[in-house]
C-alpha cells in the first residue's frame, strides 16, 4: 500500500470513514478543527452526515442520537470542549451506546493554551463524566497509530456497546506523517453492521412493548440501576484481555522510562540516543491507558532497575499515579515533565536519565 | 354493544400513569399515541424525551424512545433523523428542558429547519424537581426558587417560545394550544397531526406548544389550576397558529 | 542519519508550503521517515509562521527538536528568534533581500539568497518560497531535486499555468544553492 503524507487530524477522520463512520458532529476548537473540516468535505462523498453542532454539548448529543439509531458515529474536540461533551459521553456510557470520540488535547486547565499537552489524563482515564463509568482509551504515538486505533475503535465500541476514546494531542493532530490507510469498508459491510444493531437501535419497532427499543441512560428502579452498574463493571473487568503495552529495550535496563502518546515517541528517541552511549535505558509504553497495563511493571527486575522515570506533558503529573500503582514502591519514581503547551524534548529526557544514572 | 372508544395501544397495557391529578401530560401522551396510530406511524416512531415529568413517559409509552440529556432532545433527534431519515422522530419536552437549559439546541434545530416535530409542554414551572421557577413562569407567580414570586427586575419576563421561533426563517409550523377544554383538546390533536404530517412531507421543523397546568407545584387543586390556566396562563400565552407554511 | 529543519518567516511568505513540499516529496518518493509540524497560533493573519521538517532513516522522535541541523529564515524576526537553536556546525539559509542584520554566530555555515528580489524579478513575489526550497535542496541534497519537483508539479496540478514560473523559480534556487556548496 502506498504511503500518504497526511495531517494527523485528517488521517484520523479518514480512518473513521473507512471504518464505516457515517455520522459526525463537532464544534470548532483548536487544535482539532481539521477533523470536522475533513468530515465536512468527505461525508457527502460517502453518503454520510456531517453536522456542525451549535456547541460541543449539542454535538455529542447528536452523536448520542445517531449512534442510538445504530449508525457508526463519532465526534472530536480538544480539552475544554471535551469537558463540555462529558454530559453526553456519560449518557452514552450509561445507555451503552457505541461511539468513538477523539480528544486532540491541549494545555489546561480552563481555556489553558492551544498548544499540545497531555493534561487530560485523569479526565480521559478516570472520570470522563459523572457516574464512574470506564472506557477503552487508546493513546497514539504516531499518526499511523492514530489511524489504526481509530479504525479499530469502532469495532471495540460496537463489541462492548460503550464509548471508545482516542486520546491524541496537538502534536499528533497537527503534524503530518506518512501513513498507510486501512481498507475502506464496503457499503454492504456498513449496512450489515448497522443491521446487526437493529434489535436495540432506536429506529422504530413494531408495536410490542417487549420489543421496543428503549435507550435508557438511567433507571427509576434502584435495583435495576445497580444491576446495570454491575453489568458495566463486569464489562470493564473483561478488558484485561484487551490491554496493549509496549516494552522497549527494557531487558537489561537500569532506568525504565514510563510514558505514553506523544511523550513516549520522544522518549523512545532518547532511549536510542542513550543506548548508543552504552547506557542501559528502556521504556514501558501503555498503548491502552485504560485499561492500564499495571502488570507490565511486574515484568521488571527490581534488583536491576534503579528507578522509573515518568515522562509526560503535564504539570502536575497525572499518568504517574497509574505508574505508581504498577510499580508498587519497588523502586523510586522520578518525573520529567513539561506543560503549558511546551513539547517534551529529547534532551530534557536524556538529562533526566543521566542524572539518575549518575546518582546510582 | 358497539365499541366506540378504545385505549391507544401506544400506551403500555395495565400501566397506570403516575402523573398528578389535573396534570395534562397524560392527555397529550394519549393524543400523540392516537395520532401515531391513526397515521400508521407507530412502528417507525422514535420519541426523544426530555428530562423532568416529560421523561416519566419512558415507563408508559410502548414505542421506541431515547431519554435525552436535559435540554438536548432536539440535538439527539437531529442525530437520529439525519442518520435515519426513514424514522419518524419527535421530541417531547417541558419548559425547563426546551426553553431554558436546551434553548441553544431548540433554537438551533429550528433554525436549521431540521425535519422534526416538537411537542413542547409549557406549564410555567419545574415539575419533577419540585416547583422551581421556569423561563415561562408568570410575573408574580411563586416558585420555590422565587419565593416572593417572579419579579421582572430580578428575573425578567416569561419567555414566549412560539414568538421567539417565529423570528426564524426555517420553521414551517408554530402553534400554541391547550388542553383545558374538549374543544382545545381536539385542536391540540389537530395541531399534533399537522406537525407530524409536515415531517412526513419533509417540510421541516414544526413545534406545538401546549399550555398545561401543574396543580401540584402551583399549589392548587385540579379545578382551581384549570381556572388559573384559563385566567392567567392563557392571558400571557395566547393560543393560536403563529405560522403554517 | 537525521536532518532537522526549521523554516521561519512572515505569514504569507509560503513558509508552510516550502516545508510541506519538501516533506511530501520525501514521503512520496523515498523510504525515509519524515514529519512536518506546523507551529500554530491564535492569529489567522500576520505574525510569524514557522514549521519543522524532520527527515530520517530511523524512527523519528520529536517532530520538533530544541536543536536544529538546518534553519531557513525568511525575515529578520525569525533570525533573531531561531538562530540560537541552530546547532554548532549547522546550516543557515537566509533571505538576504530582507534579512540585513549581521549574522552574529561564526560556528555555522551561512547560505545567502536574495529570494524576495529574485521572485520580484521573475514577476511574482509569491515564488520566493520555491526559490528558497531550490536553494536548500541544491545546497544540502537532502533529497533528489527531481523528487521535489515532481511533488511541486503534483501539488500545482490544478494551477498548471503557474508551473513554468515555479519551474524557473525552483531551477534558479537549485543553481544558487549548488553554486554555494563548498
What this model shows, in words?
The complex is a heterotrimer of chains A (360), B (245) and C (182). By secondary structure, chain A is α/β, with parallel strands linked by helices. Chain A has 12 helices and 15 strands. In chain A, helix 1 packs parallel to helix 6 and helix 10 packs across helix 12. Chain A is globular. Chain B is α/β, with parallel strands linked by helices. Chain B is 36% helix and 16% strand. Chain B has a 7-stranded mixed β-sheet, with helices on both faces. Chain C is of the alpha/beta class and 182 residues long. In chain C, strand 4, helix 2 and strand 5 form a beta-alpha-beta unit. Chain C has one domain: Pyruvate-ferredoxin oxidoreductase, PFOR, domain III (Pyruvate-ferredoxin Oxidoreductase, domain 3, 3-Layer(aba) Sandwich), CATH 3.40.920.10. In chain C, helix 1 crosses helix 4. Chains in contact: A-B, A-C. The interface between A and B is large, with 43 and 37 residues.
Defining key terms:
heterotrimer, B: alpha/beta, Rossmann fold, seven-stranded mixed beta sheet, C: 182 residues, alpha/beta, Pyruvate-ferredoxin Oxidoreductase, domain 3, six-stranded mixed beta sheet, 25% strand
